[in-house]
Amino acid sequence: MTDILKELAALSAPTLAAVVALAGATGAIIAAAIGRLVVTPFLGARDKQDREVEWRKHALELAKLDLERRLKTYIAGESQPMRPSILDFLANYRDLQELGTKTPRDLFIIIKDKRITRHPPAQAKVSTIRPPDDPTGHS
User: Fold this and answer.
1) How many angstroms separate the CA atoms of 68 and 88, rounded?
2) 8 A C-beta contact, residue 92 and residue 63
3) Packing angle between helix 85-99 and helix 13-73, nearest 10 degrees?
4) Residue 98 reports pLDDT greater than 80
5) What distance in Å separates the CA atoms of residue 21 and residue 138, rounded to the nearest whole number?
6) What value does the mean pLDDT take over residues 37-60?
7) What is the DSSP letter of 139?
């Protein structure tokens, strides 16, 4: 260590200033690299948390809108109870999470093909909307 100090003392002022500047720049670069390695994972986790919060907010709003729609169209004497809104919330939340990994088009196709159940015509409540003598629904 003393040999290094002796060599540095023997350097001229401009050379010594250049060595000091180089050491300072090297230290700044190393500090930035270490900072990036330490901070980046935390920023990624924070971004993920922010996305999750937004997904929950949107899923909750969608579930509320769906409940309002179902309450407006619910028939009092219906034999089947309404589906719990928590199931709608969970489905919406799952779909919003998948939107982060799939394109909207892919997600639309998945929802349309795999998640929407079709009721046979006998179970559909079409007869309450259309007159029984006119199956086309035209007046």
Assistant:
1) 12
2) yes
3) 150
4) yes
5) 87
6) 85
7) -
Q: What is the mean pLDDT of residues 2-13?
A: 75
* Distance of alpha carbon 77 from alpha carbon 98, whole angstroms: 37
Tell me how far apart the alpha carbons of residues 42 and 49 are, in angstroms, rounded to a whole number: 10
The tokens 């200033």 sit on which residue? Answer: 17
Residue 133 has pLDDT above 80, yes or no: no
- Rounded distance between C-alpha atoms, residue 71 and residue 117, angstroms: 20
Answer whether 125's CB lies under 8 Å from 76's CB.
Answer: no
pLDDT attached to residue 119 = 59
Closest CA to 63 of 82, 86, 80, 94: 86
Tell whether pTM > 0.70.
no
Taking alpha carbons only, the member of 70, 96, 73 closest to residue 83 is 70
> Are 8 and 16 in contact, with CB atoms under 8 Å apart?
yes
Is the pLDDT score of 123 beyond 70? no
Tokens representing residue 78 in the block: 């219906």
pLDDT at position 64 is 92
